[in-house]
């Protein structure tokens, strides 16, 4: 089982790299290199803040875009090329296929994030070495971004297990936007009464809460991130991603592929 | 049950358990980050104008969200009986930058800002600034002049500014005739309890919002109770001057010919008479603004 899973995982990673996914790194570096001196010209003592804000935001946005646009094709591409039938004809279970695809895309995203993190630290060293700040806070923010990507990837896989690529992209992106405003959804729930309150609260817990994982603001201002928050966010993202992937497996196992 | 059904049932149970785990974890995360943290984050982008550009044309929706945040912030601080509301004005300012025509924010927001703690933020100058911004953006809306005059009169005690606000508002097409009457009263009398009653009555009778109406009724009841208590104090003192002792019960005043019957408050409850001659309402929760107009 482990060898089958790792084979699918590595194949998915190789395919993503062959698709020139990592080209986004060039754009990322250009963005960082251009933004720090540019903003440094028009403000004082902001270089570190700008590099941190631009860097962390770009890591998150690039990751989400890659996750959605690679994720939507993971299942449908295999069906379109008819390679899925070859895979499933071998002793590979459907859940192994879905789980392998998930881990493969996550591996791609982790490698991509690691390289961008390296770029961010180089940019900080080059443009803002005189301005002090906590690097551990930066790493926590990046870790939270990886957790966010774990959730987005699971959601993409869920939609792509039963829908077309274009609709999967739309659904995932819509859920991502809703998830970034999850705190407001909770506020709306607090204002509602009776059945509407329960309904909105239920929806607020069902949709992913990406706001809970966003600490870019605090990190940019060097605020401390509590260890308990790291622990609870890890539990949250892992349980949510596992539940969503299980739902994808449940749907894919019942799907008629003929 | 066949093997596939068993597997499906097992996965479903696991899925539900994981979802429950995610909800529990999220509740812990929310408890850890707290409501204040979310609002602090909001203000990391303190410029509404910048937010408007970043909103890609969806600024009205963003304004609705900021208004919700302002209400949440005020509500939670109000429940805590807080005396400081540092984030209230910035949140209202951002909301009205994002959508300058969101009248409800000027009307409600100025009430939140102007009233003295614990009922509000006790920032009448900022409340007036918010309404003035509303007038600049919505000059055809005469009720904002009424709100501005109201704040100048009640909270800023600037009767000249109040008179000017009512006068300007009365010139807006569609303004109700009593706006002119209000302007005249301000010019004549300044701070006066009958003017205050007239203002709160006008607000109670013209607002379509039940919360604002309820607030006006609360003020009117409190003013009436203050006036009653001042009159009862006067009669209790008259009794004391005549007999050298304070009355033990209302019947003593009735027997002395100083009262016609047991006095009742605007809610129909008899007033309390304490042994040292102090008069008070039975249920002070029904009169949130008591003492504001007593002996002025």
CATH fourth-tier homologous superfamily of the largest domain in chain B: Tetratricopeptide repeat domain
What best-fitting shape of chain A do the alpha-carbon axes yield? globular
Determine the mean pLDDT of chain B: 84
Q: How would you describe the oligomerization state of the chains in this entry? A: heterodimer
State the shape of chain B: flat
* Rounded mean pLDDT score of chain A: 84
Integer-rounded radius of gyration of chain A = 20 Å
Structural class assignment of chain A: mainly alpha
Residues in β-strands, percent of chain A:
under 5%
Largest sheet of chain B: 2 strands, antiparallel
- Low-pLDDT stretches of chain B: none
Rg of chain B? 27 Å
How do the strands and helices of this protein lay out in sequence?
The complex is a heterodimer of chains A (258) and B (296).
Chain A: H1 2-18, H2 24-42, H3 47-71, H4 73-80, H5 83-89, H6 94-127, H7 135-160, H8 165-180, H9 182-191, H10 194-206, H11 216-220, H12 227-254
Helix pairs in contact in A: 1-6, 2-3, 2-6, 3-6, 3-7, 6-7, 6-12, 7-8, 7-12, 9-10
Chain B: H1 3-42, H2 48-54, H3 59-79, H4 88-98, H5 103-114, H6 124-137, H7 142-154, H8 159-170, H9 178-189, H10 193-206, H11 210-243, H12 250-255, E1 272-273, E2 279-280
Helix pairs in contact in B: 2-4, 3-4, 4-5, 4-6, 5-6, 6-7, 7-8, 8-9, 9-10, 10-11
């Amino acid at each position: 089982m482990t060898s089958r899973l790792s084979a699918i995982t590595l194949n998915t990673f190789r395919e993503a790299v062959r698709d020139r996914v990592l080209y986004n790194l060039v754009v990322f570096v250009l963005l960082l290199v251009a933004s720090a001196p540019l903003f440094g010209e028009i403000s004082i003592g902001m270089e570190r803040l700008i590099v941190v804000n631009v860097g962390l935001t770009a890591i998150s946005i690039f990751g989400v875009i890659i996750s959605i646009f690679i994720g939507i094709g993971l299942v449908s591409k295999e069906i379109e090329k008819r390679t899925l039938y070859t895979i499933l004809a071998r002793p590979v279970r459907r859940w192994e296929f879905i789980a392998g695809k998930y881990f493969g895309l996550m591996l791609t995203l982790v490698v991509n994030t690691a390289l961008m993190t390296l770029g961010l630290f180089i940019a900080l060293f080059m443009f803002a070495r005189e301005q002090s700040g906590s690097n551990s806070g930066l790493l926590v923010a990046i870790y939270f971004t990886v957790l966010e990507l774990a959730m987005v990837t699971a959601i993409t896989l869920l939609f792509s297990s039963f829908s077309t690529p274009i609709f999967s992209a739309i659904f995932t992106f819509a859920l991502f936007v809703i998830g970034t405003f999850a705190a407001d959804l909770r506020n709306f729930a607090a204002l509602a009464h009776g059945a509407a309150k329960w309904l909105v609260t239920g929806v607020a817990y069902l949709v992913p809460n990406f706001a809970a994982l966003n600490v870019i603001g605090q990190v940019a201002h060097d605020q401390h991130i509590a260890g308990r928050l790291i622990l609870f966010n890890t539990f949250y993202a892992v349980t949510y991603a596992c539940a969503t992937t299980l739902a994808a497996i449940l749907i894919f196992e019942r799907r008629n592929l003929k | 049950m066949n093997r596939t059904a068993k597997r499906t049932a097992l996965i479903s149970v696991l899925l539900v358990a994981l979802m429950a785990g995610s909800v529990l974890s999220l509740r812990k995360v929310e408890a850890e980050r707290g409501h204040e943290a979310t609002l602090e984050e909001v203000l990391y982008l303190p410029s509404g104008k910048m937010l408007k550009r970043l909103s890609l044309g969806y600024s009205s929706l963003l304004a609705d969200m900021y208004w919700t945040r302002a209400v949440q912030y005020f509500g939670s601080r109000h429940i805590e009986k807080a005396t400081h509301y540092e984030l209230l004005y910035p949140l209202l300012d951002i909301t009205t930058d994002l959508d300058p025509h969101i009248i409800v924010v000027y009307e409600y927001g100025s009430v939140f800002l102007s009233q003295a703690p614990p009922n509000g933020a006790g920032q009448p100058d900022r409340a007036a600034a918010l309404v003035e911004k509303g007038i600049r953006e919505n000059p055809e809306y005469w009720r904002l002049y009424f709100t501005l005059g109201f704040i100048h009169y009640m909270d800023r005690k600037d009767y000249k500014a109040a008179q000017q606000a009512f006068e300007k508002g009365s010139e807006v097409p569609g303004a109700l005739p009593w706006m002119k009457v209000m302007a005249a009263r301000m010019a004549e009398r300044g701070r006066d309890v009958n003017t205050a009653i007239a203002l709160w009555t006008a607000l109670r009778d013209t607002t379509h919002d039940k919360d604002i109406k309820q607030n006006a009724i609360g003020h009117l009841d409190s003013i009436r109770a203050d006036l009653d208590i001042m009159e009862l104090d006067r009669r209790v003192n008259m009794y004391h001057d005549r007999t050298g002792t304070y009355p033990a019960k209302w019947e003593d005043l009735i027997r002395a010919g100083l009262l016609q019957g047991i006095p009742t408050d605007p809610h129909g409850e008899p007033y309390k008479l304490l042994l040292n001659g102090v008069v008070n309402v039975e249920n002070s929760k029904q009169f949130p603004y008591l003492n504001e107009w007593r002996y002025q």
